[in-house]
Design a protein that fits this description.
- The structure is a single chain.
- It is built from three helices and five strands.
- The protein has a single domain, classed as Trna Endonuclease, Chain: A, domain 1 (3-Layer(aba) Sandwich), CATH 3.40.1350.
- A five-stranded mixed β-sheet has the order 1-2-3-4-5.
- It is 31% helix and 39% strand.
- The chain has 111 residues and is of the alpha+beta class.
Length: 111
């Protein structure tokens, strides 16, 4: 299994253990990809999963730069356009280190 896929599975399991419900994994459209889409109560959560083996160059969080955020936001807007009602949404980041420790950042960035 590829490391990225394994990281996404670990992150999905982690979030489900914290009460979120999986809606969709690996949503892709012409604008980009969203790793995980979940529900946290009435809130729709678009989660970006990042795993870095080293902390050089700012680590996993720094890899979610402005350009990457814009691609995620566009993909989320495309996803939301298919819904009849647009729920409250947020963008979370799940950062995994080489040991498999997970840092969950709610509202990692805003649209």
């Amino acid at each position: 299994m590829k490391p990225g896929v394994e990281a996404e599975l670990l992150a999905a399991r982690y979030l489900q253990q914290h009460g979120l419900t999986m809606v969709q994994a690996n949503f892709r459209c012409r604008f980009g990809e969203i790793d995980l889409i979940l529900r946290d109560g009435k809130t729709l959560v678009f989660a970006e999963v990042r795993q870095r083996s080293r902390s050089d160059f700012g680590g996993a969080l720094a890899s979610i730069d402005h350009h990457k955020q814009q691609r995620i936001i566009l993909a989320a807007q495309f996803y939301l356009s298919s819904l009849q009602q647009v729920p409250t949404c947020r963008f979370d980041a799940l950062l995994l280190d080489a040991s498999g420790n997970i840092e969950w950042i709610k509202n990692a960035f805003e649209a």
